[in-house]
Structures are given as C-alpha cells and as structure tokens.
C-alpha cells in the first residue's frame, strides 16, 4: 500500500520502473487520441468537474490508461470524494504510476502520470480516507473502464 511519504519519495528521487514503455511522437499521439483525450493526456489539461464520464460511475471493473491501455486502478479502490473527478485510494501496482511535483496554477501539487506512456492522469493529494490517506483525483478522459474479465 502506498502512503503519502512513498509518493513524495518517488516524486523527489525516482519513480518505480514500469514493466514496459510506450514512446510515440506527438504527431502519433495526436493521430491516436481523440482531441479531448489528447488535451488531457499529452497537454496536461483538466476536464470540467462533475461533467465527465467516470465522476459518478461505480461499476465493477478496472481502469486503464486511455493512451496506452496499461492497467491503473481497480474500481474497488474508487470512492465518492465529492471533488468532481473520479477518485481512487490506491493504484493496481506500485509501478503503474509516475509522480512529479507540479507548481502550475500557483499551487503545489503532485502530478500523476501513466508510468508506461507518460500520459497526464491528474493529481494525488494527502487527504484521502484511511488507511493510506491518499486521494488520486483523475481526469475521466485519461481513463478507459474495462468490465470484469475484459483485457486491456
């Protein structure tokens, strides 16, 4: 289980090694992704709160990166955080995500990226529920939901 101190250590020193890497040119990403997903995953945009696909969805399954298909979160770790975006308490694996300090918009946050393709997913905060105390606040456009038993 990842805690806030683990996330800060990753952001400060080095992220865990992913199982593989997906590297494409920006032109290839643009051709591969719909415009809304490209803006979020490749240009670090944020979708509007409460008006996104997975904000109020709690169906069983897993969430994968919309860019590369890497499995990121199990729906069992999703909870109603009243933030306007899908919120999770833990990733599927410690090496699924990369963590980066982000001081944009006059805020100090920790950005979360897919550790395989580098796609922007959202941010992580130290105000989640016990026992981990972390809240992954993500953009629906960066995710793809897979029903139980479905592959990536």
UniProtKB/TrEMBL annotation:
GO terms for biological process: protein repair; response to oxidative stress. Keywords: Oxidoreductase. PANTHER family: METHIONINE SULFOXIDE REDUCTASE (PTHR10173), METHIONINE-R-SULFOXIDE REDUCTASE B1 (PTHR10173:SF52). SUPFAM superfamilies: Mss4-like. The lineage of its organism: Bacteria, Pseudomonadati, Bacteroidota, Cytophagia, Cytophagales. It comes from the Bacteria. One of its GO terms (molecular function) is peptide-methionine (R)-S-oxide reductase activity. The keyword Oxidoreductase applies. InterPro entries: Met_Sox_Rdtase_MsrB (IPR028427), Met_Sox_Rdtase_MsrB_dom (IPR002579), Mss4-like_sf (IPR011057). Residues 26-148 form the MsrB domain. It catalyses: L-methionyl-[protein] + [thioredoxin]-disulfide + H2O = L-methionyl-(R)-S-oxide-[protein] + [thioredoxin]-dithiol. One of its GO terms (cellular component) is cytoplasm. The keyword Oxidoreductase applies. Its EC number is 1.8.4.12. It is an enzyme of class 1 (oxidoreductase). This is peptide-methionine (R)-S-oxide reductase. NCBIfam families: peptide-methionine (R)-S-oxide reductase MsrB.
């Amino acid at each position: 289980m990842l805690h806030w101190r683990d996330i800060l250590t990753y952001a400060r020193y080095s992220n865990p090694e992913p199982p593989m890497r997906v590297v494409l040119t920006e032109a290839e990403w643009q051709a591969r992704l719909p415009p809304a997903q490209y803006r979020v995953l490749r240009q670090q945009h944020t979708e509007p709160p409460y008006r996104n696909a997975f904000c109020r969805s709690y169906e069983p399954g897993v969430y994968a990166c919309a860019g590369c298909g890497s499995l990121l979160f199990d729906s069992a770790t999703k909870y109603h955080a009243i933030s306007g975006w899908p919120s999770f308490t833990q990733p599927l694996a410690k090496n699924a995500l990369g963590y980066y300090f982000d001081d944009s918009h006059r805020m100090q946050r920790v950005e979360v990226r897919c550790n395989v393709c580098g796609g922007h997913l959202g941010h992580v905060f130290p105000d989640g529920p016990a026992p981990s105390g972390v809240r992954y606040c993500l953009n629906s456009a960066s995710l793809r939901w897979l029903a139980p038993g479905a592959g990536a």
